[in-house]
Amino acid sequence: xxxxxxxxxxxxxxxxxxxxxxxxxAAEMAYEGVTINILTRPGPxxxxxxxxxxxxxxxxxxxxxxxxxxxxxxxFQKLITDWSTGTNSVDVGVFASGWGVELVDADLVxxxxxxxxxxxxxxxxxxxxxxxxxxxxxxGSTYFITLDGDFQMLYYRTxxxxxxxxxxxxxxxxxxxxxxxxxxxxxNGDGEPDYGSCIFKKRNAQSYFAVxxxxxxxxxxxxxxEGLYFDPETMKPKINNAAWKKAFELYKATGEFGPPDExxxxxxxxxxxxxxxxxxxxxxxxxxxPLSIEEGxxxxxxxxxxxxxxxxxxxxxxxxxxxxCNADLCPNATDGINYAPFAAFGGWTAAINKASDDKxxxxxxxxxxxxxxxxxxxxxxxxGWTGYNPYRNSQLDDTSLWVxxxxxxxxxxxxxxxxxxxxxxxxxxxxxxxPGAQQYTGVVLDRELARYLAGEVTVDEALANIEExxxxxxxxxxxxxxxxxxxxxxxxxx
Amino acid sequence: xxxxxxxxEDRGALAKWFEPPAIGAMAPGTKIIVYSxxxxxxxxxxxxxxxxxITSFKSAADVNNGPFFIxxxxxxxxxxxxxxxxxxxxxDTIRAYLNSMVIAVCATALCVxxxxxxxxxxxxxxxxxxxxxxxIFVAIAAGVIYTAFALGFDWRxxxxxxxxxxxxxxxxxxxxxxxxxxxxxxxxxxISQRILPPVVVVIPVYMMFQSVxxxxxHIAIILTYAVINLPxxxxxxxxxxxxxxxxxxxxxxxxxxxRIMTFREIVLPLSRAGLAAVTLLVIILCxxxxxxxxxxxxxxxxxxxxxxxxxxxxxxxxxxxxxxxxIIVMIIPVIAMAAVLQKFxxxxxxxxxxxx
Amino acid sequence: MSLADNLADTARPxxxxxxxxxxxxxFGARFSEWLDRxxxxxxxxxxxxxxxxxxxxxxxxxxxxxxxxxRFRAGGYKSRFVGWDNxxxxxxxxxxxxxxxxxxxxxxxxxAFGLAVTAWVIWAMAGYVxxxxxxxxxxxxxxxxxxxxxxxxxxxxxxxxxxxxxxxGVTLFYVFVGCGVQFLIGLGLAFLCxxxxxxxxxFRVTFFIPLMITPIGVGYIFRMMADTSKGPFAExxxxxxxxxxxxxxxxxxxxxxxxxxxxxxxxxxIFIILLAAFENVPKDYVEAAQVDxxxxxxxxREITWPQVMPVAATVMLVRVIEAFKIVDLPNIMTSGGxxxxxESMSLHSFYAWRALDLGQSAAIAYLLLFVxxxxxxxxxxxxxxxxxxx
Lengths: 494, 356, 390
What we know:
The complex is a heterotrimer of chains A (about 500), B (about 350) and C (about 400).
Chain A: H1 2-8, H2 10-24, E1 35-40, H3 44-61, E2 64-69, H4 75-84, E3 92-96, H5 97-105, H6 113-117, H7 129-135, E4 137-138, E5 141-142, E6 144-146, E7 153-157, H8 158-164, H9 172-182, E8 195-198, H10 207-219, H11 242-254, H12 267-275, E9 279-284, H13 288-292, E10 303-306, E11 313-316, E12 321-324, E13 348-352, H14 358-372, H15 374-380, H16 394-397, H17 400-405, H18 409-423, H19 437-453, H20 459-477, H21 479-489
Parallel strand pairs in A: 1-2, 1-3, 8-9
Antiparallel strand pairs in A: 3-13, 4-5, 6-13, 7-9, 7-10, 11-12
Helix pairs in contact in A: 2-3, 2-15, 10-11, 19-20
Chain B: H1 13-17, H2 28-55, H3 60-64, H4 80-88, H5 90-124, H6 131-149, H7 155-174, H8 183-192, H9 198-211, H10 218-243, H11 247-254, H12 259-270, H13 272-288, H14 291-296, H15 304-310, H16 320-354
Chain C: H1 2-11, H2 27-37, H3 39-66, E1 68-73, E2 76-81, H4 85-91, H5 96-99, H6 108-131, H7 135-157, H8 167-194, H9 200-208, H10 215-225, H11 234-239, H12 251-280, H13 283-291, H14 296-323, H15 328-333, H16 345-354, H17 358-388
Helix pairs in contact in C: 3-17, 6-7, 7-17, 8-12, 8-14, 10-12, 12-14, 13-14, 14-17, 16-17
């Protein structure tokens, strides 16, 4: 089904390619004989578009683009072994930007600043501020090129909420109320009760992203630079406090209005339920929009998006307690509600191997830039099967492409509006971007969260364990070094 | 029939159901129980495979809105998954399929050849390795690896120095102490290699092949598979050879046949059944291995199990339909082989294993 | 027959022209003579060399990893020696709950069980010392003795005291309960198939199929099977009133599902070998016993079982070795969840490895290696050697 769409849209893609063609033609066939090896995840999602754009690129420049595909869970291991042991069979890795910091720290990634300086087509200013200034950069230099903008949003069934006479939730407390009100009603017309809320909760999957989304609005109030996880001076974890406790409890509470085996559902399972019309509320990345208009979807034009719910109270860092929001505590609040859309996963980004040949590096950069440029990416992000979500302002201004892709005008405006609001929010929360990110969140946070959800530990024990685990990892990597990188990742320079 | 079950008159009508009509035949009651138990198990074995088969003909919506059991009745089957596999991505699929075949066949051949030679040797020839020499070897090997791995010396230099040191020390010290091990110890050492969890060896093995530039080649995977399955071959074939009477070989040797000739002309033909069974087992293990293949291959040498895992598209969910198709495609050749070799499976492992 | 020809050939050396020099013989002939002189080494060297290359290097390399913190850097690794840190962390430190389990206080039942096992092991050791004593034999028995005491106390403090046990306990559960179930069912099926029934070949091939599926595939198949909302048993599940209960949320239910999947795959292995063993039991023995009026149970116990037992011991040893390495099924079915309830040691090591924590990963793998070796060697010595070979 996904692949059928691929063909239907191939024409659009081709036209876009032709339009862009003359711009790059200046360097015609400059890369004859150069091969760019790219490593990413398998299947049409992410990789499929790279292959197609690679063919266009070959026609323009002569460089051959070869895409190697490795199972999702093993990409990073594979990449870091390949680059650090000097195998260097991969020139470009396409992966989550958060993982990349470790590669940069290990001195394996090419600094892209000089390339960008000589590139007049990439139009960096058009890229949304969070992705431009945080996600692509480590320590102030650009190392990554964004292909996909990732942050979580709240989706709701417009028809279900309208029937119940409810507004989309603004805070997590509202979320639970709405979920409770619609839980058990039939949402897809098959006569069976459906679920109020669907949030993936499987271990070793994506659950730790969801809980961070819930915590963000209580922990971070003063803009992206405040950070979610540590005190930047001492690297003391900001985890064992009332805000995270509340987030854990909220996350568990949403399970009451979810499918019974939610504890073993990853995002794939949840999306299956969502597109077959069985969920009233859900959190997800940008993909739900394009997915909703795919063939076989039961929720075409029935799904709305809003910015991630916020909170009326926020963490007082000194006391570790929650306090009612006021102008001091929550300078970025709207109507007394503090929002902090969480850039979970950071999106699929490309990094170039420092050890590749200079000519290959230049070709690789040109290709990644080609994919990132508005002329190409603005088309790519409207197609569900590519897996690319918007990250440029120009992608959000023009609804015509989205309507062409199959959205109704109203749905397109709603979806793009929510994205725009999140993307340009000054209090967007950054994902973990220091070495060991996988260990901090993917192992320690995820495991304790899973144990809490399974009832093996209380929330207090879980948070205490996370604090201890994080301190150990920080010690392992070196407290000073970690603090340095953490500060830089938040754009703090002293 | 002369045979009559004793005291049959004392038993009730129900008991008659369980009275065998003749020796080597089953009573009707027993028959019912036996067949129904076998039928239940057949169902248990086949149902998941049936589900796999019908899932490969479902569309995403059929899977998500399921469960649907019977094609054409519950849902309209579609060839989408098979088309994705063999039309859209046919290059990847065919390449992985051929890779898997080449690797499984070559690795199995190598493994069975080397393994049965070693097993034969252990069953027929007495070895008395010197424990002290072995300890010296291990110590030097550890030293070589440490200097090359942790201290960063060139591994070729370290290895050469280590080899020289070993020969010197083995001659100087090894000969004075005579603590000998036996065949049993060698056998156990070989078998114990199978205990190692694969996660432990992945990175070192990767580095090994990287240093000789063999990553992403068939040779690397073939060698690795041959070695990890060697213990199984040695073990089962040892028992097998042990159970073959020695007379034939002895008379052949009296007639002047060399040991290699005896092995080739007498022992191997006699052990055809055992070899067939072991071959089948090893080829299945090679065909299905995942973790090592993942690390030793990038594109060129990618095998089928990686394709299976690739159908888990992460946040896009699992492409159940295509994944089912891949698994089915993977089973077909092995089933065909098992059907051909099934007579050997039973006879083969049997003879060897009887000796325990 | 080629055999006969060959024998004749060797018995009757080729007629050679008088005065022919040795050096005139073909290279091939000289090579095969050389090989024959060295046939002792020739037969075993390839296997020994290959295993040495592939076992010594990885074993030593991962031993270094286990005693260090290693990180990937440009141009290789950066290692820092940390001594026993990676191990103590598992046994006493912050990962204790993960590896061994959560310890609070030991319940009365736990005390009783722990003391009982300890007393029994000490009694058995004392018996051994009184009967016969060699230093090597004593040390050889000391390891399993100490380990069984430790494991007994581990279970006493966790399972029997209402606490959760860690990956060690989960692994042992998979190995002993899983292999036990698989052995019983495999034995039963093999026995049934060895009866004079029709369609034996059909059953033999059919029952063998699950073994041929890649373990990853089995994991995904059982994830489909066990799905309570869109899997094939969803309606039965609802009908049984379990619509709001999910196996994935209950520790023991999840472990049971993993064992069902594992059994589905591995019973064929046990079945096929035991079937061969059953078929090898001489028919005349059985028939003679039937004529003598022995009951079926007596025949099984007195005639069939002693013949099958050695095979059973071997096959179980192979199975136990493989079972300790269980990783794909829990990884795919539950990702080790709920909590850490289905996480085996192999999986524990795998997750550490995936997060690039190579030191911990290697340490856990070594602990697994230790437990497996002690269990398998004890099994080999106690069951296979003592009972079977006498």
